[in-house]
Amino acid sequence: MKKFLFAALVSLLIIPTYATKIMPKKLSELVKESDHVLIVKIEKITMIDGNGKEIKNLDARTGPGLKNQIQYHVVVEKNGVLKTNAKKSPQKLIVGLWRMWHSSLGSHQDMKDKKVIMLLKGKNFERVYHGGFIRNLDEKKKIEQLLVQKNKAQK
Prior knowledge:
By secondary structure, the chain is α+β, with helices and mostly antiparallel strands. Helices cover 26% and strands 33% of the residues.
């Protein structure tokens, strides 16, 4: 009986960990699934609650059971459209991060003013996957190679 109770207790402690775990995807998969690959500058980081109201408290959190979402307000760099299937790429975007990550608004402030590559999908330019859709600029060459391979495969 003690072993059963111990196993049950351990399970209760472990299950929440897996609730926010996602399977990693390779860069090649993310590029293949992307409709838009953009070089952007992150101008502002905000958080909204479940009603769309802005939260300014840097200690405010996201995660399971919370409706808060961190948003990156970005501007597409000049010549920053590496790929898009849209007729026209917007100059400015608001990209929401996955609500299930355990995170705080303050923990993202170091991303302000950084230039990154975003892998997005759909007409609303949403993240292509929960994680890994924000890439370092030093991956640009590899991403461009993957885009060329993708184009060849589609022909």
